[in-house]
Write a structure and sequence with these properties.
A five-stranded parallel sheet has the order 3-10-4-5-6, with helices on one face. Strands 15-16-19-18-17 form a five-stranded antiparallel sheet. A three-stranded antiparallel sheet has the order 7-8-9, with no helix packed on it. The protein has helices at 33-46, 58-69, 90-102, 151-155, 200-214, 285-293, 317-325; strands at residues 6-8, 12-14, 27-28, 50-54, 73-78, 106-109, 113-118, 124-129, 134-136, 139-142, 146-148, 164-165, 177-179, 184-185, 227-232, 235-241, 250-257, 262-269, 272-279. It has 331 residues and is α/β, with parallel strands linked by helices. The protein contains seven helices and 19 strands.
Length: 331
């Protein structure tokens, strides 16, 4: 099949876990429909009552919720010191941990699995952790992330690092060949990187930009922005941008009410919001995301940012119009 323009959109694949026992019946990944179908068949056939989820990111947490709804006892094992480590800080994670624990889920942080144990039947019987603690279970879900599927690009001598390298037009190192989605890497929204941020909103924007440029219309991608909007354990959460930055020059504004499971945090740099976390209360999350995406200086209304009555009225008139009519309201 000949082409004038080519798009590589090969996505990602689950990161393999290299420990003894990973090949046993009852060990699943959770990134494709076929994974979910296989899991749905396994639970009743094995009469599974307990599960261990290795990985406390988005995939692991959603798998956990599904298992809890099926009545299983679930344990999460996460290497970092918090859940959703890519976008949460400790206070945000602590609220979600408590919500999951109330639903009967155990959370083991700063730990990892070293072996998947089998019983006499040859199926999963438990998981051994680094601290030698044994977690009995009937099934294991490995959810330690995805890695870009770049084999095809590498075979074609296209520049790759962790992902397929692209510029702001989504073009690769080979003229006429583009890449988009979970397989590619580029500078992020704040100029750091290159990075792979494998989430759906970024893939959609990248695909549009690539398609425009492939069809002859000039378009540029503004850089990937880390974001999650998800309900976990009955607690609504949103996290956008640089939520737990290191280094100097950042200003942190936050409200934390553990009793009501409410946490709000804004990260500012040079009078511009660069990150936000909202747990428990989601009011106006779209406005804050719009402020981040459009790099709107907030110095004139900074003192109002976390007030209960904060809204469009505080924003510059030109930006208010954009939020009401443009793409800024999509999150």
């Amino acid at each position: 099949i000949g082409y004038d323009r080519l798009l590589i959109a090969t996505g990602g694949r689950p990161i393999a876990l290299s420990i003894p026992g990973v090949e046993l019946p009852g060990v699943f990944s959770f990134t494709r429909l076929s994974d979910a179908d296989a899991l749905a068949q396994f639970v009743p056939s094995r009469k599974a009552k307990s599960a261990v989820v290795i990985g406390g990111g988005m995939i692991g947490l959603k798998a956990t919720e599904a298992l809890l709804e099926q009545g299983l006892e679930v344990s999460i094992v996460e290497m970092a010191d918090r859940l959703l480590a890519a976008t949460f800080d400790r206070p945000a994670s602590s609220i979600v941990e408590e919500a999951l624990q109330k639903k009967g889920c155990q959370v083991f942080l700063q730990n990892t699995a070293t072996q998947i144990l089998s019983g006499r039947s040859g199926q999963v019987e438990g998981v051994m952790l680094r601290d030698r603690k044994k977690l009995p279970c009937h099934l294991v879900i490995v959810a330690i992330g995805v890695t870009p599927n770049i084999d095809l690009a590498r075979e074609a001598a296209i520049e790759c690092h962790r992902g397929v390298r692209v510029d702001s037009t989504m073009q690769t190192s080979q003229i006429g060949i583009y890449a988009a989605g979970d397989c590619c890497e580029m500078q992020d929204f704040f100029g750091a990187g290159p990075r792979v941020i494998a989430i759906w909103p970024n893939a959609v924007r990248q695909g549009k930009v690539a398609g425009h440029n492939m069809a002859g219309q000039k378009d540029r991608y503004e850089g990937s922005l880390a974001m999650n909007a998800v309900e976990i354990g009955g607690v609504a959460t949103v996290s956008v941008g640089m939520t737990d930055p290191e280094g100097e020059g950042y200003e942190i504004r936050k409200i934390w009410n553990p009793q009501k499971s409410i946490y709000k945090k804004l990260v500012l740099k040079k009078e511009v919001i660069v990150g936000a976390i909202f747990v428990g209360e989601m009011d106006r999350a779209g406005i804050y995301t719009g402020l981040i995406r459009n790099r709107i200086p907030v110095s004139d209304f900074k003192e109002h940012l976390l007030k209960e009555d904060f809204g469009l009225i505080y924003l510059p008139q030109a930006f208010r119009k954009h939020l009401v009519t443009g793409e800024g309201m999509e999150v």
